[in-house]
Amino acid sequence: MHSKDQISHDDYQKTADWLMSQTKHRPQVAIICGSGLGMLADTLKCQDSFAYSDIPGFPQSTVQGHAGRLVFGELKGKTCVCMQGRFHMYEGHSLLKTTFPVRVFKLLGVETLFVTNAAGSLADGLQPGDIMIIKDHVNFPGLVGLNPLCGPNDDKFGPRFPAMSGCYDKNLRCLAMEIAKQLGVAGLMQEGVYAMVGGPNFETIAEARLLHRLGVDAVGMSTAPEVVVATHCGLRVFGLSLITNKVVKSYEDSDSVNHEGVLEVGRLRSHTVQQLVTELIGRMEINNNNTNNAA
Ligand SMILES: O=P(O)(O)O[C@@H]1C[C@H](O)[C@@H](CO)O1
């Protein structure tokens, strides 16, 4: 990794300190909103919000459907911070920039990270509009060395060789399914494996077939680097993929996916995703094992 790509502990701390000087909220939960899912942030009470362009050190969002605002507020008695817009590798950000907010959240005292994304389904049982609870991921860029943890390890955040088994918290996954039953939306939900590809192009048919054979249930262009960095620094993680399209796996199929269609399904399911996340945040216990929470 080139030294100009490095971000020092002080750089993260400066951004965290600036945010703490601008808001009284001390978040326990951080939520990253996927494409078309930014409305989650609108439900926070007593909001303080900041354009990414005003936050020292923050990258900028360039993708349609990612507003570029950090929103602090209360949800069901928990203090939250919500990213209305995330950063993707394909936008040209380094992976450390892509995941910059996650370490800032850690320094703000966050103990649980919620990640949401839009994804295409490979599993036959997952239809557009379904919601997949992420059980595990395949980090394709990571497997070939495109990993935000490459380069010198920052021991203050976590170990050189962090385990990734169990990185999607099992208790939260079970609670989410229980809540889905109570909300009457269990029929839309199942657990599955998410794979991150680099994008920005959608998959070829041969790539789709390969992913399917490898056991991938849904594919997207984000999330894995954020989860790797969150797990490295000890955050508990919960993830949801909104299935926005079926990935074309047949040469006979004339369908093709586009970003507008992805955003449209996001709008259609926004209410359900919002209900699920809100209930889950309300009912989950906070461990307060993030020592920075004293701030
Ligand atoms: O930010 P997410 O992962 O939800 O965005 C997905 C992947 C691409 O950025 C975009 C394609 O439509 O949606």
From TrEMBL:
The keyword Nuclease is assigned to this record: no
- Pfam families per record: PNP_UDP_1 (PF01048)
Q: Does the keyword field hold Glycosyltransferase? A: yes
**Signal peptide from the UniProt entry:** none
Q: Which UniProt keywords apply?
A: Glycosyltransferase, Purine salvage, Transferase
Instruction: Quote the catalytic activity from the record.
Output: inosine + phosphate = alpha-D-ribose 1-phosphate + hypoxanthine; 2'-deoxyinosine + phosphate = 2-deoxy-alpha-D-ribose 1-phosphate + hypoxanthine; 2'-deoxyguanosine + phosphate = 2-deoxy-alpha-D-ribose 1-phosphate + guanine; guanosine + phosphate = alpha-D-ribose 1-phosphate + guanine
CDD domains named among the record's database cross-references: PNP-EcPNPII_like
State the superkingdom: Eukaryota
| InterPro entries for this protein | Nucleoside_phosphorylase_d, Nucleoside_phosphorylase_sf, Pur_Nuc_Pase_Ino/Guo-sp, Purine_phosphorylase, Purine_phosphorylase-2_CS
Q: What class of enzyme is it?
A: transferase
Q: In which pathway does it act?
A: Purine metabolism; purine nucleoside salvage
Question: One biological process GO term for this chain?
Answer: purine ribonucleoside salvage
Please tell me where a purine D-ribonucleoside binds in this chain.
Answer: E203, N245
Binding of phosphate: at which residues? S35, H66, R86, F87, H88, A118, S222
Which GO MF terms does the UniProt record name?
A: guanosine phosphorylase activity; purine-nucleoside phosphorylase activity
Q: What is its EC number?
A: 2.4.2.1
Per the record, its GO cellular-component terms are: cytoplasm
Nucleoside phosphorylase domain segment(s):
29-281
Question: What PANTHER family does the record tag this protein with?
Answer: METHYLTHIOADENOSINE/PURINE NUCLEOSIDE PHOSPHORYLASE, PURINE NUCLEOSIDE PHOSPHORYLASE
**Function of the protein:** The purine nucleoside phosphorylases catalyze the phosphorolytic breakdown of the N-glycosidic bond in the beta-(deoxy)ribonucleoside molecules, with the formation of the corresponding free purine bases and pentose-1-phosphate.
Record family assignment: Belongs to the PNP/MTAP phosphorylase family.
Oligomeric and partner information: Homotrimer.
The name this protein carries in UniProt is: Purine nucleoside phosphorylase
